[in-house]
Write a structure and sequence with these properties.
The complex is a heterodimer of chains A (about 1100) and B (about 475). In chain A, about 10% of the residues lie in helices and about 45% in strands. Chain A has about 1100 residues and is mostly beta strands. Among the domains of chain A are: about 90 residues, Phage tail protein beta-alpha-beta fold; about 40 residues, no CATH class. By secondary structure, chain B is mainly alpha-helical. Among the domains of chain B are: about 170 residues, Serine Threonine Protein Phosphatase 5, Tetratricopeptide repeat, CATH 1.25.40.890; about 80 residues, no CATH class. Chain B has 19 helices and 11 strands. A two-stranded antiparallel ribbon of chain B has the order 2-4. Classes of the chains: A mainly beta (about 1100), B mainly alpha (about 475).
Chain lengths: ~1100, ~475
């Protein structure tokens, strides 16, 4: 928190004592100085003349001369003798006693405040309170005035008036009275904000083992972060701000130091603060890309103080949330037979006749290679090591500062053959060239490697779920094994062990980010700023498809299994070979701003900003593949010899904008702001390219009014309202042109002939999607800031929603056009509450927020939108229709289970093989047949409630911080392996084994046990019987830290040392038993990389 | 601002596309491309259509063929969707092609031929629709959602007329054959063969007869002597093949080699093959239940893998992967021969061409149409016997003196056996209205155990439902009865 150290002031003194210089600074700023009288050199005179200078730039050169240094803590500055210990008991000084006063400093609850500063006004004479809040101090006279200050409390002046003993109550300052928040193209005092803005700074993130920067947004009010799985190098979270507002891209605009940049490529340790602009008033200055909110990330800057900091964490990750399935092979086979018999299959046609089961039972005793009993979770998942190291140097002079940081993240995956490494450096420099010009820049470099199995994560997960205990790993001779018997539907065991250990996907990503600015002060207090940003990314993805042969456990007959099929493989086949893809992207951004600030009185200010920007994005890729490799050990393109294939293309897009903002603060009470942005995008046809996005907001700081000024329990009270419009342009390129696409090839003779076709029905009339957000907010703090609360109501309506529209196949089976269709409304409230308190050495800080959102499609021109996210085309469909939330499930309505044949006969006809123990569906249209008209939209894939809270406790130097996150009112659907019984000869979830319907167990939670493949059209037609509640509450992070005392550290040359231990995802409360609830909710299959618990320990040290 | 005017660099704008012969050729190639879809992946229609006949079954219901066979046909099945979508994809492309080809500056003869090819393809795609779903929306203009998206169904009859007019145009224009670089394009014979098939399916016997006879009269085709060899890679595009789908390693491949070996053939098909004396296994005294594959129509061993037979130089014992749940699988369309050991292609890398029309079908069309029109004349006998007398088959002639009904039975059996595994039998049992009998019988394995219980509802199942998605997106589409 370097808000104060960045304070700038004008100081001009000539030939004064050091003491007078400090007094002068104290008068010109909010700093308070503490020092032992005897360390200031007597009789030495100094001269200083500086304008708009930081404390550091003023003090450092002066103090250096006298071998003095200083420490800044918030507004308190302690002058120390270099190579001396700081002064804690100042009253040991040798100042002659004239008047002794003692007293106690307490807070508004009557709790003592240890370590509060007590100073005789106008002097440098002072002390600190002890652990019980007591102090005593010799004063120069009985008419002196005491100045009492304490971090987080309003500084108080108390005239002594001859008393020998005083009890002083400090009021907590309204939280962050001077706190400054980063907003679009600038900063603003939090007090004067009129829009809905949330922020988090680096202190909140300290020591957490964050592996991707998007995880850092967790806990920001109104922001929903969904981190699917813990794959090393691929664990960035989805960010949703205030729900899902559109049917296309819902990602917020992320800007790092003002330039668009992927947040996950930033080292979390380099982040100084993150601001989220949630309403249109705050975000409108980003116009066409701001509809989903804007995330502003600011990186850490340098400082004049030379410092080296190092932090690290090392730990273990552990897999969580694996489905519970039947693992014993004999039990599995017996239940498989039971399932077949239940369906009506004759004894003769059983896949596992009793003789085979018996053979297996015997075989397990003597020949574990042919008759294995494997636990595939144990084989495929192992606790994995993770470590992070960060090193940071800062330094500089009064004119220039720099910061250099280096970071390493080394993470192995809990799943075999997955790992990632990341190396970051960040160099920031800021320099004042002269009185008028300052320049600066940030250079960020990241290099990331990631390895994963050749077939990709979802396929490996699927194969792990499919692998059963009877599937061999390796046979006695070291070859990969194949089960000796045949199972319909899973004839060819694709060993996950072979698929992870052979072949590889190797991804290497280099990202360069250069952001430079020049700021020029012009006459009339106008500041011109030029900002140029360049981002260059290069990613190489090399996939080596191996040749994998499995050998029959009995006959040793070889079978080759498919090891390719990775969606990134461009060639149709899956021969052993290499497929390499190089992606390049290059973006550049130029923006210019002019800013004019005018203060009319010290309480009335006007600020105007105008600017233009131009952004250009160039992307290209090149792929090549080669086959004909002689072994699994050579994997460069050159090592192959047959079927070389190449392909590649490039795309570009651009955006031109004009924007502006005016802020007016009247009398510190009435706040007004207006923004506009005028954006032109290359993504739309001429005539539709430009969009105008205005916003307005106002605030009223009621507590500044006279009638409230005297209510002492009221800290801050502000109401604010805003209205504005934002755009969304993020659709594919050239969706306004009818295009003829290549690649529709066919063979004539024996030669491939190039073919072309129109694939998509494009609409040339498309233009911006517009989101209008109205926001009303109240911020309040009470009891000296011990209780803070805020409340927001928002209405976010998106019109002309850009959306790919499904069209009937009769229109040439074309992909649907993207169109501006309909409107979607998100209404919501956000509520947050914070409370902190101290009892002696014990302190706590509780805060939390909840967001409630209703999502409704207001208008779709009467159309419906269907999406089939199932793997086999049988649904459930996700349906979006007027009057309902986005992406509901289209489901039959289950009405319990059939208990008897009579009940089936009396019920509407459901299919030829319905029998007792099957699900009974409601005949909604009462036509006597369960048909497609009996489906109904149901379920929410967008959480209604998202909430998070921090419970932080401290005792002396210990602190225990916890962060919790949860969602409520959200459903998901699982229709795949590990969700259904014997998915094509594979897994059986334990629920089915233990609690499925039998004539004896009529209240079972599951229907009668059958094979999915037999009953997929009856039991497993999409119904709400299988709709799963995906609510959860998760302890995302718990951290115990110990901070060593500064006095101890000083003696060994350190300024800070803390050690900590930490656990991520330690506890989860959810009704979703077998899968992780923090998932992709419309995926239907849970094949994501599993979530992990991470335990780490580490330290954080500064010199 | 010019800063915002960008052009795509890897696709052509439709306004500027139709300006060269090369572009026209590529667009026509794009009209053929949808043919690959149904014959590419696990859902290959050749097999899936067999799986809804007494010949075979689908083991995992992946495409929904098993659901259809069990009597649970419904509008959400992948097979129901894919046939509909692929056909309209082809229709949309040919419509776009036909609407623009006239404006392209190019050789007039070539233009005429291109138009003929496109009209054949459009007819073929419509044929694939109406024979399964009945009438569908008839669309002959380039795709346009605003004007076409909500069109209702036309009658099957209306579409048939369009098919015949497209085919007649194609027959007039198309060449009888091509030079080697153009092989695989539609020929006059192809268009005639489709016309014969379509007419046969719709009991327009004289048109069928006429078209089939016209194919014979081209003198371009003849039966390939080796029945098994007809389907081997080395004999692709032999004299019997009228039209096939062009696969070519490595870019365009299928998985037939694997898929057919894994086909699950029922006992019913095996038992349908006659004995070498021309009698059925029930009637003939050559039949020995202990060695059931002896003295059988040679096509049995040339079509199916059975236990005790040779395959890829090995004796099939039953433990092998391909002798599956029922004990029988297909040999047809694999790379392997009986006695020689060959290397298998990689998974999904077969390049064998599925044959869509072959000369034997023409002959059996003549036999069937002639019998229906004029009874079992010598013309009918000659046609069916020519198929049975193929050198590698060499079955005795159909018994002389059969009644029309008896000949019909013999012809139907001949079609089932000759085309086993080729996806024609399903439409046969539907048009013959025998599905309600044969599809209400259970599917058995080699030991007579029930593998799949089947059911067929004659009031509903003779037509497929329109896909769920289409009904939801176009409320003017009326669903077929019973769905």
């Amino acid at each position: 928190n370097d808000t104060f150290s960045q304070t700038r002031m004008n100081i001009k003194v000539e030939q004064v004592s050091l003491e007078n210089l400090l007094n002068e600074i104290q008068r010109n700023s909010k700093f308070i100085f503490f020092y032992r009288d005897d360390i200031l050199p007597k009789g030495e005179k100094v001269s200083v003349a500086k304008e708009d200078a930081t404390l550091e730039s003023i003090l450092k050169p002066v103090l250096n001369r006298f071998n003095l240094g200083f420490n800044v803590n918030d507004r308190q500055v302690t002058i120390i003798k270099l190579s001396d210990t700081p002064l804690l008991k100042i009253n040991n000084g040798i100042k002659p006693q004239s008047f002794l006063i003692s007293g106690t400093i307490i807070d508004s609850n009557g709790e003592p405040l240890p370590g509060a500063n007590v100073l005789e006004q106008g002097t440098t004479n002072g002390t600190q309170t002890d652990f019980d809040g007591n102090f005593s101090l010799s004063l120069s006279s009985s008419s002196a005035t005491l100045v009492i200050s304490y971090i987080g409390f309003a500084t108080k002046e108390v005239p002594v008036n001859g008393q020998n003993s005083v009890n002083i109550t400090l009021e907590e300052s309204a939280a962050g009275l001077e706190e400054v928040v980063v907003v679009g193209f600038g900063t603003q005092k939090k007090l004067n904000l009129t829009g809905a803005v949330s922020a988090i700074d680096s202190e909140d993130l300290q020591n957490r083992p964050i592996t991707s920067s998007s995880q850092a947004l967790q806990g920001i009010q109104g922001v929903y972060i969904n981190q699917v799985g813990g794959q090393p190098g691929n664990d960035g979270a989805t960010i949703r701000i205030r729900g899902v507002g559109t049917l296309n891209n819902n990602n917020p605009l992320v800007l790092v130091n003002g330039i668009e940049f992927p947040i996950n490529d930033l080292n979390p340790n380099d982040i100084e603060s993150v601001t989220v602009l949630k309403d249109a008033a705050s975000a409108a200055i980003y116009g066409s890309r701001a509809a989903n909110g804007v995330v502003l990330v600011t990186t850490k800057k340098g400082s004049e103080q030379s410092q080296i900091s190092y932090s690290n964490s090392v730990g273990l990750q552990e897999v969580i949330s694996l489905p519970r399935v039947v693992k014993d092979p004999i039990r599995w086979m017996e239940l498989y037979s039971q399932a077949q018999l239940n369906f009506g299959t004759s004894e003769d046609a059983l896949v596992f006749p009793q003789s085979l089961i018996e053979e297996y039972r015997q075989g397990m005793q003597t020949d574990p290679f042919t008759y294995p009993n494997n636990d595939w979770y144990d084989i495929m998942f192992d606790p994995a090591f993770i470590q992070q190291h960060n090193l940071r140097f800062t330094g500089g002079s009064s004119k220039s500062t720099y910061a250099l940081s280096l970071g390493i993240l080394d993470q192995n995956g809990v799943l075999r053959s997955t790992d990632s490494e990341r190396y970051n450096t960040n160099f920031t420099v800021n320099s004042d060239l002269n009185k008028f010009v300052s320049i600066g820049g940030t250079f960020n470099f990241s290099y990331k490697t990631r390895d994963e199995p050749v077939v990709g994560i979802p396929e490996v997960m699927e194969m792990i779920f499919k692998a059963q205990s009877y599937h061999p790993t390796k046979l006695e001779d070291g070859n990969y094994g194949m089960n000796f018997f045949d199972i319909p539907g899973h004839r060819r065991f694709r060993s996950p062990l072979a698929l992870t250990d052979e072949g590889d996907t190797d991804i290497r990503n280099i990202k360069l980010f250069l952001n430079t600015f020049a700021e020029i002060k012009l006459p009339l207090n106008i500041v011109y700023k030029l900002n140029i940003g360049l981002t260059s990314e290069n990613e190489r993805r090399k996939i080596f498809t191996p040749q994998i042969t499995l050998y029959d456990a009995k006959t040793k007959e070889p079978t080759q299994i498919q090891a390719g099929g990775n969606p990134y493989v461009t060639f149709a086949g899956q021969q052993r070979g290499v497929d390499q893809r190089d992606d390049k992207s290059f973006n550049w951004t130029v923006f210019n701003t002019l800013k004019w600030d005018k203060s009319f009185t010290d309480r009335t200010d006007l600020s105007i900003l105008l600017g233009t920007s131009y952004e250009k994005f160039d992307d290209s890729f090149f792929t090549a593949s080669n086959e004909g490799y002689l072994s699994n050990n050579l994997y460069e393109l050159n090592a192959g010899s047959t079927n070389p294939i190449v392909s590649g293309t490039s795309t570009e897009s651009s955006l031109v904008s004009y924007f502006g903002r005016a802020n007016f603060v009247l009398n510190s009470k009435y706040l007004f702001e207006a923004n506009f942005r005028y954006d032109g995008s290359s993504r739309f046809a001429p005539g539709n390219k430009w969009g105008f996005f205005p916003s307005m907001s106002a605030g009223w700081r009621i507590n500044e009014e006279n009638f409230l000024k005297d209510i002492d329990w009221l800290g801050q009270l502000k109401v604010r309202a805003s209205w504005g419009q934002l755009g969304n342009e993020r659709i594919g390129f050239f969706r306004y042109l009818d295009l003829i696409s290549p690649g529709q090839d066919y063979t004539f003779g024996n030669v491939i002939n190039p073919g072309t076709a129109v694939l998509v029905d494009n609409d040339d009339g498309i233009s911006w999607e517009t989101t209008t957000i109205s926001n009303i907010g109240v911020d309040a703090s009470f009891f000296g800031g011990k209780l803070t609360t805020s409340f927001e109501y928002f209405d976010k309506t998106t019109e002309d929603v850009l959306r790919p529209v499904g069209i009937p196949s009769q229109v040439g089976s074309l992909g649907g056009p993207i169109r501006n269709i309909g409107a979607i409304e998100n209404d919501g409230i956000e509520f947050s509450l914070g409370h902190r308190e101290y009892f002696g050495n014990f302190r706590y800080n509780l805060s939390g927020s909840v967001t409630y959102i209703t999502n409704k499609v207001v208008d779709l021109n009467g159309e419906i939108i269907l999406e089939d996210n199932s793997t086999d085309g049988r649904g459930p469909f996700n349906i979006t229709q007027e009057g309902n939330p986005i992406n509901q499930f289209l489901l039959y309505q289950a009405d319990g289970l059939f208990q008897s044949q009579e009940e089936i006969d009396a019920h509407a006809f459901q299919g030829t093989d319905t029998q007792p123990g099957y699900i009974k569906y409601k005949d909604l249209d009462n036509n006597g047949v369960i048909d497609l008209n009996d489906r109904q939209a149901e379920g929410n894939t967008i959480p209604k409630y998202t909430y998070s809270f921090n419970l932080n406790f401290g005792y002396k130097n210990f602190s225990l911080n916890t962060f919790w996150q949860g969602v409520e009112g959200v459903q998901t659907y699982n229709k795949h392996v590990s969700g259904v019984p014997f998915w094509f000869g594979t897994s059986l979830p334990v629920g089915w084994a233990n609690d499925s319907w039998t004539p004896e167990n009529r209240d079972a939670s599951f229907p009668i046990l059958t094979r999915y493949q037999d009953t997929q059209a009856t039991l497993f037609r999409p119904s709400d019987y299988w709709l799963l509640d995906a609510s959860y509450l998760r302890l995302k992070n718990i951290q115990l830290a110990y901070d060593f005392n500064a006095e101890v550290l000083e003696s060994i040359g350190m300024t800070k040392l803390s050690i900590f231990c930490n656990a991520q995802n330690l506890l989860t409360f959810t009704p979703l038993k077998d899968f992780d609830p923090e998932t992709d909710l419309i995926g239907n299959n849970f094949f994501d990389y599993p979530s992990t618990k991470i335990y780490t320990i580490g330290l954080n040290v500064s010199f | 601002k010019e800063l915002l005017e960008l052009e795509p660099a890897d696709q052509s704008s439709i306004e500027t596309y139709w300006n060269s012969e090369d572009n026209a050729a590529a667009a026509l190639t794009g009209c053929y491309e949808p043919l690959l879809g149904p014959y590419y992946g696990e859902g290959s229609w050749l097999l899936k259509l067999e799986d809804i006949t007494p010949n075979a079954f689908e083991i995992d219901d992946g495409s929904g063929a098993s659901s259809i066979a069990r009597g649970d046909n419904n509008p959400t099945l992948p097979l129901i969707n894919s046939r509909y979508q692929i056909a309209y994809e082809g229709i949309g492309r040919t419509n776009t092609f036909l609407a623009n080809i006239d404006a392209v500056p190019m050789d007039e003869n070539l233009r005429a031929r291109y138009i003929g090819e496109a009209r054949f393809l459009r007819a073929f795609y419509y044929h694939n629709l109406i024979e399964y779903y009945g009438g569908v929306p008839l669309i002959l203009d380039p795709p346009n959602n605003n004007t076409q998206g909500q069109l209702p169904r036309n009658s099957k009859q209306e579409i048939l007329e369009v098919i015949y007019s497209d085919l007649d145009a194609a027959i007039n224009i198309l060449p009888v054959s091509y030079s080697s670089t153009d092989q695989g394009r539609a020929t006059r014979g192809t268009a005639l063969a489709l016309k014969a098939r379509s007419a046969l399916y719709n009991e327009r016997w004289s048109e069928a007869l006429e078209a089939a006879q016209a194919v014979v009269d081209l003198n371009e085709y003849g039966l390939f002597p080796d029945y098994r060899g007809l389907f081997l890679l080395e004999n692709e595009r032999n004299s019997e093949v009228i039209f096939d789908v062009g696969f070519q390693f490595p870019e365009i491949t299928n998985n037939y080699h694997e898929l057919f070996q894994q086909g699950n053939v029922f006992k019913s098909l095996v038992d349908a093959y006659l004995m070498t004396d021309g009698q059925s296994i029930e009637e003939s005294n050559l039949y020995n239940p202990e060695s059931p594959f002896e003295n059988r129509d040679p096509r049995l061993n040339q079509t199916l893998i059975t236990i005790g037979s040779m395959f890829n130089g090995q004796l099939v014992t039953g433990d092998e992967l391909f002798a599956d749940l029922t004990g029988y699988a297909y040999k047809k369309y694999t790379y392997f021969t009986d006695n020689e050991s060959r290397t298998a292609p990689q998974p999904n890398q077969s390049e064998i061409n599925p044959i869509l029309f072959r000369y034997a079908e023409i002959l059996l069309t003549i036999a069937e149409a002639e019998n229906e029109l004029n009874g079992p004349t010598s013309r009918a006998y000659d046609a069916i016997n020519e198929v049975r007398n193929r050198p590698s088959v060499d079955m005795p002639n159909v018994m002389a003196g059969l009644s029309q009904a008896e000949f019909r039975e013999a012809l139907r059996l001949e079609r089932r056996v000759e085309f086993a595994g080729e996806g024609l039998y399903y439409k046969d049992i539907v048009r013959w209205r025998t599905a309600e009998v044969v599809m209400n019988e259970d599917g058995l394995d080699q030991n007579g155990n029930v593998i799949e219980s089947r059911s067929f509802n004659p009031d509903r199942d003779y037509l497929w439902p329109l896909p769920d998605r289409e009904i939801l997106l176009n409320s003017n589409l009326e669903q077929n009865p019973g769905y």
